[in-house]
Amino acid sequence: MAASCARAASVVAVHVNPQHGFSKDTAPSIKLLDGLGVEGDAHCGVTVKHRSRVARDPFQPNLRQVHLIHAELFDELASQGFDVLPGDLGENITTQGIDLLALPAGTRLRLGKHAVVTLTGLRNPCVQIDRFKRGLMKAVLDHTPDGKLIRKAGVMGIVSAAGEIKAGDRIIVKLPKLPYRAMEPV
């Protein structure tokens, strides 16, 4: 569930965007701020920063401080004819060697020496994905055999411990106490 046997879980790249745009620029490193998110990112803050959510309730807690996507998704998308690179889908952290989507809510990811992100839920893909590349929305959604929707566009989390992270940093997974709670869109 946590990491593949083929390689250790690690950070592929890190990204930040001070503006409310879709994609994020790759950076040499990013600093995670406890309870806030990524320093200098438009989504950093205690309360929600995503525009559609601010319009509904600007005082709701920011459960989407950090967005993580597994690099394996880009390989899957490439096999469907989509050229998508780390940061293109707006994630702050691109990972490899870990099945982010299979982790339960409350999982803590230690990134690098000190930073910890606690997973809050799944990213709910929106129309901006199709604006970025036509047909991409359908490619990041799937269905189980019984018809349940599978969202593959990454996971969201909050910063539980501050720290700087960069490409190549190791990721250590700490699962929450049983019973596990499946991640839902946040």
UniProtKB/TrEMBL annotation:
Q: Which domain of life is it from?
A: Bacteria
Q: Which residues form the signal peptide?
A: none
Alphabetized GO MF terms: catalytic activity; molybdenum ion binding; pyridoxal phosphate binding
Pfam families, sorted = MOSC
UniProt cross-references to PROSITE patterns, sorted A to Z = MOSC
- Domain MOSC, chain residue ranges per copy: 25-174
Coiled-coil regions listed in the entry = none
**InterPro entries the UniProt entry points to:** MoCF_Sase_C, MOSC_domain, Pyrv_Knase-like_insert_dom_sf
**What is this protein's record name?**
MOSC domain-containing protein
State the species of origin: Pigmentiphaga aceris
